[in-house]
Specification:
The chain is an alpha/beta fold. The chain has 3 domains: 171 residues, P-loop containing nucleotide triphosphate hydrolases (Rossmann fold, 3-Layer(aba) Sandwich), CATH 3.40.50; 76 residues, Helicase, Ruva Protein, domain 3 (Orthogonal Bundle); 80 residues, Arc Repressor Mutant, subunit A (Orthogonal Bundle), CATH 1.10.10. It is 51% helix and 12% strand. It is built from 17 helices and 7 strands. The strands form 2 sheets. Strands 2-3-4-1-5 form a 5-stranded parallel β-sheet, with helices on both faces. Helix 9 packs across helix 10, helix 11 packs across helix 12 and helix 14 packs across helix 16. The protein is globular, with a radius of gyration of 23 Å. It starts with 33 loop residues before the first helix and ends with a helix. The chain binds adenosine-5'-triphosphate.
Length: 374
Protein backbone atom coordinates (compact mmCIF):
# COMPACT_ATOMS: atom_id res chain seq x y z
CA UNK A 1 0.00 0.00 0.00
CA UNK A 2 1.22 3.46 -0.78
CA UNK A 3 2.66 5.37 2.12
CA UNK A 4 3.68 7.85 -0.56
CA UNK A 5 0.38 9.74 -0.23
CA UNK A 6 1.56 10.78 3.18
CA UNK A 7 -0.86 8.65 5.16
CA UNK A 8 1.40 7.77 8.03
CA UNK A 9 -0.99 6.10 10.39
CA UNK A 10 -2.33 3.85 7.68
CA UNK A 11 -1.29 0.57 9.23
CA UNK A 12 -2.46 -1.47 6.24
CA UNK A 13 -6.15 -1.01 6.99
CA UNK A 14 -8.96 1.27 5.90
CA UNK A 15 -10.37 0.94 9.40
CA UNK A 16 -9.49 3.21 12.25
CA UNK A 17 -11.67 1.18 14.64
CA UNK A 18 -13.50 -1.80 13.15
CA UNK A 19 -15.21 -2.44 16.48
CA UNK A 20 -17.73 0.37 15.85
CA UNK A 21 -19.36 -1.83 13.20
CA UNK A 22 -19.87 -4.76 15.50
CA UNK A 23 -23.31 -5.90 16.57
CA UNK A 24 -22.93 -5.17 20.29
CA UNK A 25 -21.30 -1.76 19.93
CA UNK A 26 -23.20 0.93 21.82
CA UNK A 27 -22.72 4.24 20.00
CA UNK A 28 -21.51 7.22 21.98
CA UNK A 29 -23.68 9.65 20.05
CA UNK A 30 -27.36 8.66 19.97
CA UNK A 31 -29.18 11.30 17.96
CA UNK A 32 -32.80 11.71 16.80
CA UNK A 33 -34.16 9.78 19.74
CA UNK A 34 -34.59 12.61 22.24
CA UNK A 35 -38.35 12.29 22.72
CA UNK A 36 -38.16 8.51 23.09
CA UNK A 37 -35.37 8.82 25.66
CA UNK A 38 -37.47 11.39 27.51
CA UNK A 39 -40.49 9.11 27.54
CA UNK A 40 -38.40 6.29 28.93
CA UNK A 41 -36.73 8.33 31.64
CA UNK A 42 -40.08 9.78 32.64
CA UNK A 43 -41.38 6.26 33.23
CA UNK A 44 -38.32 5.28 35.21
CA UNK A 45 -38.12 8.36 37.39
CA UNK A 46 -40.12 6.88 40.31
CA UNK A 47 -37.54 4.07 40.53
CA UNK A 48 -34.83 6.60 41.30
CA UNK A 49 -36.91 7.66 44.30
CA UNK A 50 -37.32 4.08 45.42
CA UNK A 51 -40.85 3.54 44.04
CA UNK A 52 -42.17 1.16 41.44
CA UNK A 53 -41.60 2.69 37.99
CA UNK A 54 -44.25 2.94 35.28
CA UNK A 55 -44.33 0.05 32.86
CA UNK A 56 -43.51 0.82 29.25
CA UNK A 57 -44.31 -0.69 25.87
CA UNK A 58 -41.59 0.18 23.36
CA UNK A 59 -42.47 -0.51 19.73
CA UNK A 60 -41.05 0.18 16.32
CA UNK A 61 -39.61 -1.57 13.26
CA UNK A 62 -36.26 -3.44 13.36
CA UNK A 63 -33.08 -1.43 13.61
CA UNK A 64 -34.64 1.80 14.86
CA UNK A 65 -32.63 2.10 18.07
CA UNK A 66 -34.93 0.45 20.63
CA UNK A 67 -32.27 -1.80 22.17
CA UNK A 68 -29.73 1.00 22.08
CA UNK A 69 -32.15 3.30 23.91
CA UNK A 70 -32.58 0.73 26.67
CA UNK A 71 -28.81 0.26 26.97
CA UNK A 72 -28.27 4.02 27.18
CA UNK A 73 -31.05 4.44 29.70
CA UNK A 74 -29.82 1.62 31.91
CA UNK A 75 -26.32 3.05 31.71
CA UNK A 76 -27.62 6.40 32.92
CA UNK A 77 -29.53 4.79 35.78
CA UNK A 78 -26.44 2.86 36.90
CA UNK A 79 -24.41 6.08 36.86
CA UNK A 80 -27.05 7.80 38.96
CA UNK A 81 -27.78 5.23 41.67
CA UNK A 82 -26.94 1.78 42.94
CA UNK A 83 -30.45 1.36 44.36
CA UNK A 84 -31.96 0.34 41.04
CA UNK A 85 -31.15 -2.97 39.40
CA UNK A 86 -31.64 -2.87 35.63
CA UNK A 87 -31.62 -6.04 33.58
CA UNK A 88 -32.19 -6.45 29.84
CA UNK A 89 -33.29 -9.92 28.78
CA UNK A 90 -33.00 -10.98 25.14
CA UNK A 91 -36.18 -13.01 24.63
CA UNK A 92 -34.99 -14.26 21.27
CA UNK A 93 -32.64 -16.51 23.24
CA UNK A 94 -34.64 -16.66 26.47
CA UNK A 95 -38.13 -17.40 25.20
CA UNK A 96 -39.75 -19.02 28.24
CA UNK A 97 -40.73 -17.63 31.62
CA UNK A 98 -38.20 -19.89 33.30
CA UNK A 99 -35.39 -18.74 31.02
CA UNK A 100 -36.31 -15.08 31.59
CA UNK A 101 -36.24 -15.52 35.35
CA UNK A 102 -32.95 -17.42 35.14
CA UNK A 103 -31.45 -14.32 33.52
CA UNK A 104 -32.99 -12.13 36.24
CA UNK A 105 -31.47 -14.38 38.86
CA UNK A 106 -28.11 -14.11 37.16
CA UNK A 107 -28.44 -10.33 37.01
CA UNK A 108 -29.27 -10.07 40.70
CA UNK A 109 -26.77 -12.60 42.05
CA UNK A 110 -23.99 -12.34 39.46
CA UNK A 111 -23.97 -16.09 39.04
CA UNK A 112 -26.26 -18.53 37.27
CA UNK A 113 -29.03 -20.41 39.06
CA UNK A 114 -28.08 -24.00 39.98
CA UNK A 115 -27.85 -26.07 36.82
CA UNK A 116 -29.48 -29.00 38.61
CA UNK A 117 -32.64 -26.92 38.29
CA UNK A 118 -34.91 -25.40 40.90
CA UNK A 119 -38.63 -24.78 40.67
CA UNK A 120 -39.87 -21.55 39.17
CA UNK A 121 -41.37 -20.62 42.52
CA UNK A 122 -38.03 -20.97 44.27
CA UNK A 123 -36.20 -19.11 41.55
CA UNK A 124 -38.60 -16.20 41.78
CA UNK A 125 -38.64 -16.32 45.58
CA UNK A 126 -34.88 -15.94 45.78
CA UNK A 127 -34.86 -13.00 43.38
CA UNK A 128 -37.65 -11.23 45.27
CA UNK A 129 -36.02 -11.87 48.64
CA UNK A 130 -32.74 -10.45 47.48
CA UNK A 131 -34.40 -7.30 46.12
CA UNK A 132 -36.35 -6.75 49.32
CA UNK A 133 -33.35 -7.43 51.52
CA UNK A 134 -31.21 -4.94 49.63
CA UNK A 135 -34.09 -2.49 49.26
CA UNK A 136 -33.60 -2.26 45.50
CA UNK A 137 -36.06 -1.61 42.69
CA UNK A 138 -35.80 -3.92 39.68
CA UNK A 139 -36.37 -2.71 36.13
CA UNK A 140 -36.66 -5.50 33.58
CA UNK A 141 -36.50 -4.89 29.84
CA UNK A 142 -37.91 -7.81 27.87
CA UNK A 143 -36.19 -7.18 24.56
CA UNK A 144 -37.76 -8.74 21.46
CA UNK A 145 -40.70 -9.75 23.65
CA UNK A 146 -42.52 -11.03 20.56
CA UNK A 147 -40.58 -14.27 20.97
CA UNK A 148 -42.36 -14.87 24.28
CA UNK A 149 -45.65 -14.52 22.45
CA UNK A 150 -44.64 -17.02 19.77
CA UNK A 151 -43.92 -19.56 22.51
CA UNK A 152 -47.08 -18.67 24.39
CA UNK A 153 -45.07 -17.63 27.43
CA UNK A 154 -45.78 -13.90 27.44
CA UNK A 155 -48.83 -13.86 29.69
CA UNK A 156 -47.28 -16.03 32.40
CA UNK A 157 -44.03 -14.09 32.37
CA UNK A 158 -45.70 -10.71 32.58
CA UNK A 159 -48.22 -11.89 35.12
CA UNK A 160 -45.45 -13.03 37.45
CA UNK A 161 -43.51 -9.81 37.08
CA UNK A 162 -46.48 -7.49 37.41
CA UNK A 163 -48.01 -9.23 40.40
CA UNK A 164 -44.68 -9.77 42.17
CA UNK A 165 -45.60 -7.43 45.00
CA UNK A 166 -48.67 -9.49 45.86
CA UNK A 167 -46.77 -12.69 46.37
CA UNK A 168 -43.69 -10.95 47.72
CA UNK A 169 -44.79 -7.80 49.55
CA UNK A 170 -42.14 -5.11 49.26
CA UNK A 171 -40.86 -6.26 45.88
CA UNK A 172 -40.86 -3.39 43.38
CA UNK A 173 -40.53 -4.35 39.74
CA UNK A 174 -41.08 -2.32 36.57
CA UNK A 175 -41.32 -3.85 33.13
CA UNK A 176 -40.33 -2.50 29.72
CA UNK A 177 -41.51 -4.66 26.85
CA UNK A 178 -39.73 -4.10 23.55
CA UNK A 179 -41.25 -5.38 20.32
CA UNK A 180 -40.48 -5.00 16.63
CA UNK A 181 -43.29 -7.12 15.27
CA UNK A 182 -45.72 -4.82 13.44
CA UNK A 183 -48.41 -7.49 13.28
CA UNK A 184 -48.34 -8.03 17.00
CA UNK A 185 -50.70 -5.89 18.98
CA UNK A 186 -48.85 -7.32 21.93
CA UNK A 187 -51.06 -6.06 24.68
CA UNK A 188 -54.27 -7.23 23.03
CA UNK A 189 -52.98 -10.77 22.90
CA UNK A 190 -52.37 -11.05 26.61
CA UNK A 191 -54.71 -12.91 28.94
CA UNK A 192 -57.42 -10.79 30.49
CA UNK A 193 -55.83 -11.31 33.92
CA UNK A 194 -52.62 -9.68 32.66
CA UNK A 195 -54.36 -6.94 30.71
CA UNK A 196 -56.11 -5.84 33.87
CA UNK A 197 -52.77 -5.00 35.51
CA UNK A 198 -50.73 -4.00 32.47
CA UNK A 199 -51.36 -0.45 31.31
CA UNK A 200 -47.98 0.54 29.93
CA UNK A 201 -46.86 3.92 28.68
CA UNK A 202 -46.27 3.78 24.94
CA UNK A 203 -42.98 4.85 23.39
CA UNK A 204 -42.77 4.54 19.63
CA UNK A 205 -39.61 4.37 17.50
CA UNK A 206 -40.36 5.31 13.88
CA UNK A 207 -37.92 4.46 11.07
CA UNK A 208 -35.24 7.07 10.48
CA UNK A 209 -35.58 9.04 7.26
CA UNK A 210 -32.72 9.16 4.77
CA UNK A 211 -31.04 12.37 6.04
CA UNK A 212 -31.15 11.01 9.60
CA UNK A 213 -29.65 7.73 8.44
CA UNK A 214 -26.91 9.60 6.61
CA UNK A 215 -26.07 11.63 9.70
CA UNK A 216 -25.94 8.58 11.98
CA UNK A 217 -23.88 6.54 9.54
CA UNK A 218 -21.63 9.57 8.94
CA UNK A 219 -20.75 9.53 12.62
CA UNK A 220 -19.92 5.83 12.41
CA UNK A 221 -17.75 6.48 9.35
CA UNK A 222 -15.80 9.14 11.22
CA UNK A 223 -15.06 6.82 14.09
CA UNK A 224 -14.62 3.63 12.13
CA UNK A 225 -12.63 4.62 9.02
CA UNK A 226 -9.50 6.61 8.45
CA UNK A 227 -10.01 10.05 6.93
CA UNK A 228 -10.75 10.05 3.23
CA UNK A 229 -11.67 6.38 2.97
CA UNK A 230 -15.42 6.93 2.55
CA UNK A 231 -16.39 9.91 0.40
CA UNK A 232 -19.58 11.90 0.80
CA UNK A 233 -20.99 10.28 -2.35
CA UNK A 234 -20.32 6.77 -1.10
CA UNK A 235 -21.89 7.62 2.26
CA UNK A 236 -25.00 8.98 0.50
CA UNK A 237 -25.32 5.80 -1.51
CA UNK A 238 -25.05 3.69 1.66
CA UNK A 239 -27.72 5.84 3.29
CA UNK A 240 -30.02 5.49 0.28
CA UNK A 241 -29.68 1.69 0.30
CA UNK A 242 -30.27 1.61 4.05
CA UNK A 243 -33.38 3.75 3.74
CA UNK A 244 -34.94 1.09 1.51
CA UNK A 245 -35.57 -1.07 4.56
CA UNK A 246 -35.08 1.61 7.23
CA UNK A 247 -33.07 -0.88 9.30
CA UNK A 248 -29.88 0.87 10.43
CA UNK A 249 -28.22 -2.49 10.82
CA UNK A 250 -28.15 -2.79 7.03
CA UNK A 251 -26.13 0.42 6.77
CA UNK A 252 -23.69 -0.51 9.50
CA UNK A 253 -23.10 -3.95 8.03
CA UNK A 254 -22.81 -2.40 4.58
CA UNK A 255 -20.08 0.00 5.69
CA UNK A 256 -18.07 -2.76 7.26
CA UNK A 257 -18.35 -5.13 4.29
CA UNK A 258 -17.63 -2.36 1.79
CA UNK A 259 -14.48 -1.55 3.80
CA UNK A 260 -13.41 -5.18 3.70
CA UNK A 261 -14.06 -5.27 -0.05
CA UNK A 262 -11.83 -2.22 -0.52
CA UNK A 263 -9.11 -3.91 1.50
CA UNK A 264 -9.43 -7.06 -0.56
CA UNK A 265 -8.65 -4.89 -3.61
CA UNK A 266 -5.73 -3.43 -1.67
CA UNK A 267 -7.43 -0.07 -2.07
CA UNK A 268 -7.28 2.71 0.46
CA UNK A 269 -10.61 4.06 -0.67
CA UNK A 270 -14.10 2.54 -0.64
CA UNK A 271 -15.67 2.79 -4.10
CA UNK A 272 -19.27 2.55 -5.24
CA UNK A 273 -18.66 -0.99 -6.49
CA UNK A 274 -17.53 -2.12 -3.04
CA UNK A 275 -20.85 -0.91 -1.69
CA UNK A 276 -22.96 -2.53 -4.40
CA UNK A 277 -21.18 -5.86 -3.92
CA UNK A 278 -21.56 -5.67 -0.16
CA UNK A 279 -25.26 -4.88 -0.46
CA UNK A 280 -26.00 -8.31 -1.91
CA UNK A 281 -25.17 -9.72 1.53
CA UNK A 282 -25.99 -6.79 3.80
CA UNK A 283 -29.55 -6.43 2.56
CA UNK A 284 -30.23 -9.75 4.27
CA UNK A 285 -29.03 -8.83 7.78
CA UNK A 286 -32.55 -9.08 9.10
CA UNK A 287 -32.99 -12.53 7.60
CA UNK A 288 -29.63 -13.68 9.00
CA UNK A 289 -30.54 -12.46 12.43
CA UNK A 290 -33.96 -14.15 12.37
CA UNK A 291 -32.48 -17.44 11.22
CA UNK A 292 -29.53 -17.41 13.59
CA UNK A 293 -31.70 -17.95 16.63
CA UNK A 294 -34.04 -20.61 15.29
CA UNK A 295 -34.19 -24.03 16.90
CA UNK A 296 -33.17 -27.08 14.87
CA UNK A 297 -36.79 -28.10 14.22
CA UNK A 298 -37.61 -24.60 12.95
CA UNK A 299 -34.67 -24.71 10.57
CA UNK A 300 -35.84 -28.09 9.30
CA UNK A 301 -39.26 -26.62 8.71
CA UNK A 302 -37.83 -23.81 6.60
CA UNK A 303 -35.73 -26.28 4.65
CA UNK A 304 -38.86 -28.35 4.04
CA UNK A 305 -40.74 -25.26 2.84
CA UNK A 306 -37.80 -24.28 0.61
CA UNK A 307 -37.99 -27.71 -1.02
CA UNK A 308 -41.75 -27.40 -1.46
CA UNK A 309 -42.09 -23.67 -2.02
CA UNK A 310 -45.72 -22.67 -2.55
CA UNK A 311 -47.08 -26.13 -1.77
CA UNK A 312 -50.04 -26.94 0.48
CA UNK A 313 -49.42 -27.25 4.20
CA UNK A 314 -50.21 -30.97 4.05
CA UNK A 315 -47.50 -31.69 1.50
CA UNK A 316 -44.99 -29.61 3.44
CA UNK A 317 -45.89 -31.56 6.55
CA UNK A 318 -44.93 -34.83 4.86
CA UNK A 319 -41.49 -33.45 4.08
CA UNK A 320 -41.14 -31.94 7.56
CA UNK A 321 -42.18 -35.16 9.28
CA UNK A 322 -39.68 -37.11 7.25
CA UNK A 323 -36.91 -34.80 8.40
CA UNK A 324 -37.86 -34.50 12.07
CA UNK A 325 -40.32 -37.23 13.02
CA UNK A 326 -42.40 -34.54 14.73
CA UNK A 327 -46.19 -34.63 14.71
CA UNK A 328 -48.79 -32.37 13.15
CA UNK A 329 -49.59 -30.30 16.24
CA UNK A 330 -46.01 -29.23 16.75
CA UNK A 331 -45.74 -28.67 13.00
CA UNK A 332 -48.69 -26.25 13.07
CA UNK A 333 -47.21 -24.34 15.98
CA UNK A 334 -43.90 -23.97 14.21
CA UNK A 335 -45.59 -22.87 10.99
CA UNK A 336 -47.36 -20.15 12.96
CA UNK A 337 -44.12 -19.05 14.54
CA UNK A 338 -42.11 -18.73 11.31
CA UNK A 339 -45.12 -17.02 9.78
CA UNK A 340 -45.20 -14.46 12.61
CA UNK A 341 -41.47 -13.98 12.22
CA UNK A 342 -42.14 -12.90 8.66
CA UNK A 343 -40.06 -15.73 7.24
CA UNK A 344 -42.91 -17.31 5.28
CA UNK A 345 -46.20 -16.34 3.71
CA UNK A 346 -49.07 -18.62 4.58
CA UNK A 347 -52.02 -18.07 2.29
CA UNK A 348 -55.41 -19.66 2.53
CA UNK A 349 -56.66 -21.02 -0.73
CA UNK A 350 -59.60 -23.16 -1.79
CA UNK A 351 -58.40 -26.55 -2.86
CA UNK A 352 -60.74 -28.51 -5.07
CA UNK A 353 -62.59 -31.15 -3.15
CA UNK A 354 -60.66 -30.51 0.05
CA UNK A 355 -62.03 -27.22 1.30
CA UNK A 356 -59.69 -24.52 2.47
CA UNK A 357 -56.03 -25.18 2.98
CA UNK A 358 -52.92 -23.12 3.49
CA UNK A 359 -50.16 -22.82 0.95
CA UNK A 360 -46.73 -22.03 2.36
CA UNK A 361 -43.99 -20.09 0.63
CA UNK A 362 -40.77 -18.39 1.67
CA UNK A 363 -40.92 -14.62 2.09
CA UNK A 364 -37.26 -14.27 1.15
CA UNK A 365 -35.19 -15.36 -1.78
CA UNK A 366 -34.86 -19.16 -1.62
CA UNK A 367 -31.09 -19.22 -2.17
CA UNK A 368 -30.56 -16.57 0.50
CA UNK A 369 -32.51 -18.67 3.00
CA UNK A 370 -30.80 -21.95 2.09
CA UNK A 371 -27.34 -20.35 2.29
CA UNK A 372 -28.06 -19.20 5.82
CA UNK A 373 -29.53 -22.50 6.97
CA UNK A 374 -26.32 -24.39 6.24
N1 LIG B 1 -29.71 7.12 16.77
C1 LIG B 1 -28.72 6.25 16.57
N2 LIG B 1 -27.44 6.68 16.55
C2 LIG B 1 -26.44 5.81 16.34
N3 LIG B 1 -26.60 4.49 16.14
C3 LIG B 1 -27.86 4.00 16.14
C4 LIG B 1 -28.97 4.85 16.36
N4 LIG B 1 -30.09 4.11 16.31
C5 LIG B 1 -29.70 2.84 16.09
N5 LIG B 1 -28.35 2.77 15.97
C6 LIG B 1 -27.57 1.57 15.64
O1 LIG B 1 -28.34 0.75 14.79
C7 LIG B 1 -28.25 -0.63 15.13
C8 LIG B 1 -29.61 -1.18 15.43
O2 LIG B 1 -30.12 -0.52 16.58
P1 LIG B 1 -30.91 -1.29 17.73
O3 LIG B 1 -30.33 -2.65 17.93
O4 LIG B 1 -30.99 -0.41 18.89
O5 LIG B 1 -32.32 -1.44 17.01
P2 LIG B 1 -33.67 -2.12 17.52
O6 LIG B 1 -34.74 -1.15 17.23
O7 LIG B 1 -33.51 -2.61 18.90
O8 LIG B 1 -33.78 -3.35 16.52
P3 LIG B 1 -34.62 -4.74 16.67
O9 LIG B 1 -36.03 -4.39 16.83
O10 LIG B 1 -34.35 -5.44 15.39
O11 LIG B 1 -34.04 -5.45 17.85
C9 LIG B 1 -27.31 -0.70 16.31
O12 LIG B 1 -26.03 -1.08 15.83
C10 LIG B 1 -27.26 0.71 16.86
O13 LIG B 1 -25.98 1.01 17.37
Amino acid sequence: MGGDEGMLSWDESVFRDEHVFEIDYVPEAFVHRESQMQGLSHALRPALRGSRPLNVSVRGPPGTGKTTAIQKLFGEVAAETAEVETIRVNCQVNSTRYAVFSRLFEGCFDYEPPSSGISFKKLFGQIAEKLIEEDRVLVVALDDVNYLFYENEASDTLYSLLRAHEEHPGARIGVIVVSSDPTLEAIDELDARVQSVFRPEDVYFPVYDEPEIEEILGERVKRGFHDGVVSGDVLSRVAALTAESGDLRVGIDLLRRAGLNAEARASQVVEGGDVEDAYETSKHVHLSRSLANLAASERELLAAIADNDGEQAGAVYEAFHERTDLGYTRYSELVNKVDQLGLIDAEYADVEGRGRSRSLSLSYDREAVLDRLE
